[in-house]
Structures are given as structure tokens and as C-alpha cells.
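Question (not urgent): is this output format expected?
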Amino acid sequence: SSDLAGKENLRHITFDGSNIAMIHGLHRFFSCRGIAIAVQYFWDRGHRDLTVFVPQWRMKKDPKVKEQHFLTQLNQLGLLSFTPSRTVAGKRISSYDDRFLLQSAEIGRA
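Got this back:
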């Protein structure tokens, strides 16, 4: 259940949402369910200090992004962290997600 207290003294877990979603989607689509499964795995083991990094544009309607409601739920739980992205002249520009993961680890959050 999502309202149960977690275990104490567990490390912060940081997820590379893009990698998880693309692998779960067999590199054919972005599987938001894959992210939810990974988060659930750690949640079930008592972790509550979790952060999933995904580019902001993954929240926009896109036929290659499956089951976006999982991202919405993770965002409502405060577990989602968006990396900046923008569109310039029709091309999508995303910051390098790994840089955000490393910065999170560097400041002791991962």
C-alpha cells in the first residue's frame, strides 16, 4: 500500500526513466509501465526516497509514449523529476539526462 511508512536507513534510489522505459518498450516505444514496475519493486522493499528522471516532453501526447497515466501518478506522488527540454524549429532538444542523474548523486541524493 502506498501509505505505509518505508524502512529507515535505506539509500536514495535514482532512476533513469528514459532508459527503463525504452528497454521495457523493447526500443519500439517509451513504456511508462516499465518505469512504474521499477519504482514498485523498490517501494515494495521499503524504499520511499525515490526519484525518476524523465525529459519534460514525455508528458506531451505522443503515440510512441505508452500508458502516460503511470507518469502522471508518479508525478502526483512526488517521485518524478523532469529534465528540461524544448522544441526549436520543429526539433526536440533535451538536456542530457545522465548529467542530472550524476548531479543528483553528487549532492548526496542518489
